[in-house]
C-alpha cells in the first residue's frame, strides 16, 4: 500500500469587517486566524505559504503582525462573536 500524505487545507474568507484564514493541518487541527484588513490579507497568505519574501511591499503593520501571531480561533462561531 502506498504511503499517503494528508495535505493541509487552507482557505480565505470574509466575515463582517475582516478577512480570515482557515487551516486544517495534516493532524486534523483546525485553526482560523484574523481578522485581517484588506491591505494585510495578501501578506498574511504569503506568510502562510512561506513566500513572504516575494511580497515585501505588502509587509504587515505592527497591528496586523500581532493579529497574525496571536489571534487564532477554532470555529466560525467563535469568529462570528467578534
Q: What can you see in these coordinates?
A:
With 82 residues, the chain is α+β, with helices and mostly antiparallel strands. The protein has a domain at 38-76. 30% of the residues lie in helices and 28% in strands. It has 3 helices and 4 strands, in the order βββααβα. It has helices spanning 38-48, 62-70, 76-80, and strands at residues 9-15, 18-24, 30-36, 72-73. It has a 4-stranded antiparallel sheet with strand order 1-2-3-4. Strand 1 (9-15) and strand 2 (18-24) form a beta hairpin. The model has no long low-confidence stretch (mean pLDDT 83).
Kindly summarize this structure in a few lines.
By secondary structure, the protein is of the alpha+beta class. Helices cover 30% and strands 28% of the residues.
Amino acid at each position: 500500500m502506498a504511503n499517503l500524505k494528508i495535505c493541509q487545507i487552507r482557505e480565505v474568507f470574509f466575515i463582517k469587517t475582516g478577512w480570515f484564514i482557515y487551516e486544517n493541518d495534516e493532524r486534523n487541527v483546525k485553526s482560523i486566524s484574523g481578522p485581517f484588513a484588506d491591505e494585510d490579507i495578501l501578506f498574511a497568505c504569503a506568510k502562510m505559504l512561506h513566500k513572504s519574501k516575494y511580497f515585501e511591499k505588502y509587509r504587515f503593520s505592527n497591528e496586523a503582525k500581532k493579529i497574525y501571531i496571536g489571534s487564532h480561533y477554532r470555529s466560525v462561531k467563535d469568529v462570528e462573536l467578534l
